[in-house]
Fold this sequence. Notes:
25% helix, alpha/beta, homodimer, FAD/NAD(P)-binding domain, 29% strand
Amino acid sequence: xxxxxxxxxxxxxxxxxxxxxxxxxxxxxxxxxxxxxxxxxxxxxxxxxxxxxxxxxxxxxxxxxxxxxxxxxxxxxxxxxxxxxxxxxxxxxxxxxxxxxxxxxxxxxxxxxxxxxxxxxxxxxxxxxxxxxxxxxxxxxxxxxxxxxxxxxxxxxxxxxxxxxxxxxxxxxxxxxxxxxxxxxxxxxxxxxxxxxxxxxxxxxxxxxxxxxxxxxxxxxxxxxxxxxxxxxxxxxxxxxxxxxxxxxxxxxxxxxxxxxxxxxxxxxxxxxxxxxxxxxxxxxxxxxxxxxxxxxxxxxxxxxxxxxxxxxxxxxxxxxxxxxxxxxxxxxxxxxxxxxxxxxxxxxxxxxxxxxxxxxxxxxxxxxxxxxxxxxxxxxxxxxxxxxxxxxxxxxxxxxxxxxxxxxxxxxxxxxxxxxxxxxxxxxxxxxxxxxxxx
Amino acid sequence: xxxxxxxxxxxxxxxxxxxxxxxxxxxxxxxxxxxxxxxxxxxxxxxxxxxxxxxxxxxxxxxxxxxxxxxxxxxxxxxxxxxxxxxxxxxxxxxxxxxxxxxxxxxxxxxxxxxxxxxxxxxxxxxxxxxxxxxxxxxxxxxxxxxxxxxxxxxxxxxxxxxxxxxxxxxxxxxxxxxxxxxxxxxxxxxxxxxxxxxxxxxxxxxxxxxxxxxxxxxxxxxxxxxxxxxxxxxxxxxxxxxxxxxxxxxxxxxxxxxxxxxxxxxxxxxxxxxxxxxxxxxxxxxxxxxxxxxxxxxxxxxxxxxxxxxxxxxxxxxxxxxxxxxxxxxxxxxxxxxxxxxxxxxxxxxxxxxxxxxxxxxxxxxxxxxxxxxxxxxxxxxxxxxxxxxxxxxxxxxxxxxxxxxxxxxxxxxxxxxxxxxxxxxxxxxxxxxxxxxx
Lengths: 440, 440
């Protein structure tokens, strides 16, 4: 059995590693376009500010380690074509073509930062933050830059903004929408926005990038409102699946190019699986194929595909529910399940409750308020989503809610659950239970 | 409708408050033997060390506030007899008898610290920590005591020991069993024990209290091994339900006197409910009546009884699963569900996995290892229990497990759950998911 994997970061290498453990006799070949394998991309914003000092600590396993485990890894190999009919791939290595056959193929090509083709977008000093090499180059360039513009106020934009503040930079964030963190409901996004503003970030919402100006290096960011003088630009307007080479070959894709996979990781083409930032996962609550480029899903689907290929046909991906968490200065910002925004977009008719409650017993020193929104189905009282933002005890609670919402539980189950309690950690009625009580 | 409540702390007052909101027209009378209502007993260890400075902050609501809400509260009224046949109670107030009738009765008399009748147990300087008045007297007495012996290494004993260390005392803990925290499996109890020893606590395990010595004040604690010179003794060997006055009246009780109630809070006698530290709750996993004297259960069952009495017959108590958490110096010590000890006692045939894993991405500074034990049913792979101990991110995880275990989920549900992830808070595979992967 010969397994070919295209792409050697989270999804590809977790698949390959797991499968090699399950089936040592399988031949596994990984073709990776870039130079780095299996690295923690989520740590890159913190690497920029030197909170994480050495890029080597971001690398989970090296090419040598994978080779030693019996996985054949080819870096610098770009796959340019998949022939689903004769079960082969074609590509280029140092400008020379190569062709390989497979029994089973796994596509794990990830996604690339979107680079907007505005005026002068080829000027120097405009950086993406997509690969480990990007991060290394950007960290070096930041040494001689004081004023930074970040284009986009999604997760990466917000995390990078915080880390630029840690470096003592002057930071502009430019976002064409009227809120940061577009997957959050507006009042909750506002709390995250305010935390960055308070830290000194100059926030430009409702402002659209029109172009750049400069001679060799970028000197101004031009928006629909003004010209902003900058030394360096970081683009963080989202990512696009690396599936252009698969166009017009009959793959089922979302409009952005994300490969639609089922809960076994299968694409619609025979013997071709896909995982990671190049796919749209099944959503556990809405059943929609959903583009959620996150390392956790890449790792999980990678393992599921390995189980499938090893013959364990019972293994299945349980679905995404939209869980996310990020640090924004001293706030923890988190969500899971469906927001009111999602409800309106999908016409689900959810309702919500908003609650402020303390993370621990009010009489124990250091208690902090957190803001909670639960969305719920008004007919069944099933809790459908949670957004939680606060300074303490938030990462505690969002994943309790991920568990509650994954299981489709009603508010009374949470209200009456035997949660562990002690004054330094929880009030006698946990904030989650106080919010559950409001749903009635 | 006239509701009589015996006992005015957590269970009694949460019942009365909720019922008054649901049914303002009901007449509610609360008879409380002591002086304080509705206080946060769980905060008392921290009050001793002045982490919580003022006892008033422990009082959730005062008698005046309850009266103002329309609940008639009688403090200093000790109920001495319940006549289930003519639906009345009898008692004493300032040595004068009183008698009242009821339509529905709620018993919420709590529990009292066990005082072991060893030699010289009436000497001065031997304190319980059961009521708010106990805490006030003990805090005063601690001012002139340097060497403290704590009898018992359960939750209260451990919390008090930590707080005595904070006060700079010399602290002996005397425990007749071979481990601290008897509800935990031995290797996990050992981690908590070691944390206290490292902080300076002198730990005497396998050592049994035989008596005290002294003239007026206690001067020595006598064990089966030695005499320990002390200035003050705090007894924390557990509590006994305050149900002696109900003996021989046909109530279904555990051997320790805990009233057995069903999931509606009903005792076996008609129109008599009970909640709080005087009852044994239904266990969600074993169905056994279980004595778990904790404020969370008291509050929850109090509300359920209020719902029942208001006519909402669908409300029910979902059962305890044995969740607990406590701070032991810089460790968080927690459990939920069934331990291996419980499995052996009940002959359940559970198995376990032990895992050490980091609370956050290893490359993000400040990661700490935590110790995790999951128990599980080897036939179904349903996770039955979790014990988690570590310095960071523990209170996060134990209540995720409370949710998982309450719902009877198998290991693959947890392994594949969409948990929120970001490097400052979680590794890409959460420690809980790593432990779930080990179950196979």
